[in-house]
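4.2 Preliminary Data

To establish feasibility before requesting continued support, the project team ran the inverse folding procedure on a target of 161 residues. The structure was first converted into the token representation described in Section 3, and no sequence information of any kind was made available to the design step. The complete token record follows.
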């Protein structure tokens, strides 16, 4: 008599080579798991790197808008407060714009979302503040940076960028 599942025309050796053995399956699954655990940190690193690139671009865009505002005010396109050093009073002014000869001039389309804090709230520094100051006096916006206390891939803090 033949055993169930066996083929009378094949030897036992031929039957074991037709499919994967349990040991082969375990080895393949182990290799795939090892490769997956190696890929996860790389994927996390890539996500963080993308956020850092977005943060640098957002900071550059806002600082560029602050510079354009100051340049226009220095040329006398519009009036500013005397103690403002011709810097904008806040970031909203860059978005809402100022009146220049019956036209509204805007310097930013919108305040970008900080990719690290996921908020449109940014830390600012005014011209009157000390360079190392962590709090702004609120007189004007000379510089802007993230409120995140996180550490970048290069070891620096995001709030110092």
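Position-by-position output of the design step:
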């Amino acid at each position: 008599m033949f055993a169930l599942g066996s083929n009378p025309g094949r030897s036992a050796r031929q039957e074991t080579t037709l499919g994967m053995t349990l040991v082969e399956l375990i080895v393949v699954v182990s290799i795939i798991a090892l490769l997956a655990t190696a890929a996860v940190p790389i994927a996390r690193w890539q996500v963080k790197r993308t956020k850092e690139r977005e943060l640098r671009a957002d900071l550059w865009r806002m600082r560029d808008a602050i510079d354009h505002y100051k340049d226009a005010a220095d040329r006398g396109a519009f009036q500013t407060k005397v103690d403002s050093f011709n810097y904008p009073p806040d970031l909203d002014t860059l978005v809402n714009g100022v009146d220049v000869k019956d036209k509204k001039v805007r310097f930013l389309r919108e305040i970008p979302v900080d990719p690290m804090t996921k908020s449109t709230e940014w830390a600012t520094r005014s011209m009157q503040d000390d360079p190392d100051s962590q709090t702004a006096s609120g007189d004007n916006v000379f510089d802007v940076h993230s409120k995140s206390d996180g550490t970048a891939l290069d070891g620096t803090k995001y709030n110092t960028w």
